[in-house]
Design goal:
With about 90 residues, the chain is α+β, with helices and mostly antiparallel strands. The chain has helices at about 25-30, 65-85, and strands at about 1-5, 5-10, 15-25, 40-50, 55, 60-65. A hairpin with a 4-residue loop joins strand 5 (about 55) and strand 6.
């Protein structure tokens, strides 16, 4: 996708850690997990949030960012063009 002459690449890999959460494991997961740990009742799951970081490559005129950040930028440009028309 192009935006003001720049190619925009959206990647889900632009995330930041947002804490950890303990989750109860199911019976099936406790019995059939590899390595086998049948008495471990909880597991730790890492949470992530989208990053607002934007990487700009001047040589190839490319912007790389998370899809939610790209949507915010699109909404901001649409709002600014509507204000300019009014």
């Amino acid at each position: 996708m192009m935006h003001n002459g720049y190619r925009v690449i959206e990647s889900d890999k632009f995330v930041l850690p947002d804490g950890e959460e303990k989750v109860k494991r199911s019976i099936k997961e406790m019995l059939f997990s590899i390595p086998w740990h049948p008495f471990t009742r909880f597991k730790t799951v890492c949470k992530y949030k989208p990053s607002n970081e934007i990487i700009l490559n001047e040589l190839s005129k490319t912007l790389i960012m998370h899809p939610k950040t790209a949507n915010k930028i699109r909404e901001m440009t649409i709002e600014s063009t509507k204000k300019g028309e009014a």
